[in-house]
Each structure stands twice: as structure tokens, then as C-alpha cells.
Amino acid sequence: MNDDVIATVEQSATPAGAPADLDKSPRVSSRAPKDGAAEMTNFEIVSHYFDLAADSLDMEPDLRSVFRSAYREVQVQIPVRCLDGKIHVFSGYRVQHNGARGPYKGGVRYHEEVDLDEVRALAALMTWKTAIAQIPFGGAKGGINCPAGQLSSDELQRITRSFIDKIEKVLGPTRDIPAPDMNTNAQVMAWMMDEYGKLHGHTPAIVTGKPISLGGSLGREEATGRGIVYMFREAARSLALRPEETRVVVQGFGNVGSWAARLFCQLGCKLVGASDVDGAIQSPIGIDPEMLLAHIRAGGKLPEYSGPGVEAITAEELLQLDCEVLVPAALGGTIHAGNADSIRARLIIEGANSPTTPTADEILNQKGTFVVPDVIANAGGVVVSYFEWVQNLQHFRWGEREVNEKLGVILRRAYREVGARALRDQLPLRVAAYALGIERVLEAAKDRGYV
Ligand code: NAD
Predict the structure, then answer these.
(1) How far is CA 134 from CA 114, 191, 282, 331, 437, in A?
(2) Burial class of residue 184 in the structure, from the number of CB atoms within 10 Å of its CB (0-12 exposed, 13-18 middle, 19+ buried)
(3) Does the Cβ of 274 fall within 6 Å of ligand 1?
(4) pTM of the predicted model, to two decimals?
(5) What does each C-alpha distance from 112 to 120, 183, 259 come to in angstroms?
(6) DSSP codes of every residue in 221-235
């Protein structure tokens, strides 16, 4: 391996912020106020749950330290000449947390607030998520601190290609396989695949979430949203919720949120509130997610959508809407000590990663709100990414029904195994899920002789 191209964090390139004229977003603030109780970073939150789960497993302190830190952290400088004629310098990250169970796997996020702490936290979450779902991957995550929403397609392409050129040595279809996350999509994956292919030859299995024309899997785009609806069907049994009586609120009407909304409505539920970075809307009569999406795709802003009974509300009012199900599907930390108590949903299904802070989790637990945690709730994306990778290695395409059915089998199994562990050890679902994941990673690490 050529270490010249890999700047580890210890010897990293100078951390670079977004340039002054690109980093001012007038839109909804994406970060939650911190819980008064503890100024916890994203990574501290993930470590907090790791510790609770490790306690339940009586894990020794030296073993804990192996899993608390990442195997490899890469930080690279991405200088790009933007359309304003100036060179802007962004920071790109790839964190490979643990590869005991297989190649590293995880999305790449483009957002002005991306930093190493966040990518580290998300990489660790991926390790536990793939283990809980029993798919043969380790955990990784990537990100670039660029203001994606303010960049042209041409600028995004240059940033993406430059990032891949700088981290390609740590990638590979049996080494580390990126995927889409916030502000990255099939187009970005196509550029990544193409750039990697220039250096290594045509390699579709190097990324997942690609366009169908380049070896993407049928069902991948909607997989995370579909998984959320599968989780609803499982949890609804315990809560005696019937779809036709279920009102749903979605925070973050992007890939995950808009697909969840559409699939909830197909099941007979009603979408009564939705939001994105531009604002929020509600309608007690119900919002047609297809019409809302068409409005946004035509260049309209979400809060300007005018359907029957629709009115614009604030981002905080959205969380307080009278509903049965709330799906946070935007950024981490949006449900916190300051707003958890006013949430009226009976069931929260975490589409986003880490949307609920630990203090909020406790408040919700005391209120009796049922929370399906991120590590199972949003695993649909990585499960179908796994199917895409398998199809690429087989050079064979599966039908969409086959993809959806296999996804259902895996997610239902994960939900039931986590539920059984929670019951057996009297643990909250989130801690039970982590415990199951940690146990499996530990077993693989021991079998390999890592630990
Ligand atoms: P996306 O970029 O397609 O959509 C994100 C949406 O959130 C956009 O509509 C954006 O406007 C909105 N948003 C941003 N800030 C907001 C705010 N402060 N308030 C309300 N809305 C806001 O991203 P995505 O792929 O849908 O990912 C969303 C979340 O789901 C992320 O946390 C991601 O890590 C997680 N996730 C995604 C996948 C996947 O397959 N895409 C899988 C697992 C988890």
C-alpha cells in the first residue's frame, strides 16, 4: 500500500472548512441544541450505547478498547476550482471501524457540518448494524464537508472524483465498498465507480446504490424507506396499530423519508406532516407524498406546497404533531432533551442515524414511546446494498420482488432477534441491538485471532 496517498488523522492534511461564500446556508439549522445534561458528540453517543451493551455482555475493558476506536481513519484534502473561479478546499474522510466480519461497508455523506467525530460515530454504527442484520460486512463511513445543496453537478463530480483518487488505495470490492448517504445518490455512486474503474478496470462491486444501468440493484433506492415500513408492520402488532388508523409524520423528505412516506401511504396510513431543510408542512386530511415529491422535483420548496388542508409550520411544531408514527429521516440529534417531552407519536422509527440523543431516549422511554432504533430501523439500505454487491459479483440481476422478499426476511429476523434479546436480558431495544451486534463481531474477531 502506498502510504503517501493516505494521510491518517494523526498526520492529516490541514483540516479545511468550507469557503466563506459557500458555507452560509439560510435554511433550517441541521444540528440540534445539545442536551443540557451532557455535551455529547456523535461518537460519545455511540460509545455510550456501546458501553451499556458491553456491560450487559460483561465485556472486559481491554476488549472494549479494541472496539471503541476505528481500525483506520483517512483524512484527505480536496481542493476544487468551483464555478466562482476560486479554489475551495474541502476535507474528505473515510473511517473503517471494524472488518472482522467482512469488507468495510458504509455510505458517504456530503454536508457542510461533516467532521471526523461524526464519520467515526457513523462507521461504528455500521459495524453493529451489519452484524445485527447478519450480512457479511464490517463497518465504515465516509464524508466530505462540502455544502452539497449549493454546488453544481459539475462541482460535485469534481469533488467526488478527487475524493476517490485520494482514497482508492483503501477501497476495493473485497476491502471497502462505499454507498449513498445524505446528499449523495446514484449519480454520485456512478462517478465513484467510473473513477475507481479508470485505475483498476471496470469494477461495479466497488460501490452500491449505483444507477440500474451500471449494475445497481432493483429496489435499492427505496430499500431504507421500505425497511422502515417493514419495521412498522412488526411494531404495529405489539401496539395494536392498524395502518388505516395510523397517522405518520416524516422529518426529512429525502431518499429515506420520501420513500417511507410513499410506502406508508400505499399500506393505507396517512401522511399528516413532512419537513426538509427548507421547512415543514402539516395537513390533518393527509398529504399526498407523490404530489409533494412532484412539486419538489419541479423546483418547488416543500413549505410552499399547497395541497388540501396543507399549512406551513415550524420544524419544532412538526415534532409535536398529533400522530401515531414519527419517522426522523434527516440528521443526527434532532430529537433531544429540549423537545422529546412534547413528542406525541406512540412509535418512533429511526430512519436517520442517531436522531435521538441519550437524554431524549430516556425521556421517551419514561413516557412509554416505543422507539425502533436506527441500527435495525434503517438497515434496509445496507441489506439491499449487500444484495447489489452479490449480484455484481455474480454478474446476474435479481428481480425486484426477490429483492424485496429477501429484505423482508432479513429485517424481520433482525427485529425479532433484537426483541428476544431485549426481553431475555430486560434491556431497551437499542442496547439489546448493540449487544447482539457486538457479540457477533467479537466472535468473528476471536475466530480470526484478532483478539
Ligand atoms: P437525503 O439527502 O436524500 O435526504 C435528507 C433530507 O433531510 C433532505 O430532504 C433534506 O432537505 C432534509 N433535511 C436536512 N436537514 C434537515 C433539517 N434540519 N430538518 C428537516 N429536514 C432536513 O438523505 P437520505 O439518504 O434520505 O438520508 C437521511 C438519513 O437517513 C441520514 O441520517 C442517513 O444517514 C440515514 N440513512 C440513509 C440511508 C440510505 O440508504 N440513504 C440508509 C441508512 C440511513
Answers:
(1) 28, 29, 38, 25, 9
(2) buried
(3) no
(4) 0.92
(5) 16, 11, 24
(6) TTHHHHHHHHHHHHH
Q: H or E element: which one contains 272?
A: strand 270-276
**3-state DSSP call for residue 37?**
coil
Counting from 1 in the atom list of ligand 1, the atom nearest the Cα of 148 is: 2
- Over residues 81-97, the pLDDT tens digits come to 999 999 999 999 999 99
- Where the chain has pLDDT below 50, the residues are 1-34, 36-38
E strands, 181-258, are 247-251
Mutation test residue for ligand 1: of 29, 150, 181, 384, the one with most atoms within 8 Å of CB: 181
For residue 135, give the nearest of 223, 213, 221, 57 by alpha carbon: 223
* CATH fold of 71-214: Rossmann fold (3.40.50)
**To which residue does cell 439489546 refer?**
432
* Catalytic site residue from 141, 166, 210, 270: 141
d(CA 202, CA 196): 8
CATH 1.10.10.10 fits 1-26+35-69+218-379+386-446, yes or no: no
Name which residue sits closest to atom 5 of ligand 1, judged by CA: 254
Task: Tell me what pLDDT residue 144 has.
Answer: 98
Q: Is the CB of 330 under 6 A from ligand 1?
A: yes
Which helix H or strand E contains 360, and what residues bound it? helix 358-367
- Return the amino acid letter for 357: T
CA angle 257, 235, 269 (to 5 degrees): 50
Retrieve residue 123's grid coordinates: 462507521
Of 434, 237, 246, nearest in space to 326 by CA: 246
Residue 421 parent element (H or E): helix 400-425
CA-CA distances (angstroms) from residue 8 to 13, 165, 178?
9, 16, 19
Tell me how far apart the alpha carbons of residues 295 and 292 are, in angstroms, rounded to a whole number.
5
In this chain, the answer to whether the domains covering 1-26+35-69+218-379+386-446 and 71-214 adopt an identical fold is yes
d(CA 383, CA 148): 26
Amino acid 39: pLDDT? 62
User: For the chain, which residues make up each domain, given as ranges?
Assistant: 1-26+35-69+218-379+386-446, 71-214
Residue 141 is among the residues annotated as catalytic for this protein: yes
Give the residue whose CA is nearest to atom 41 of ligand 1: 181
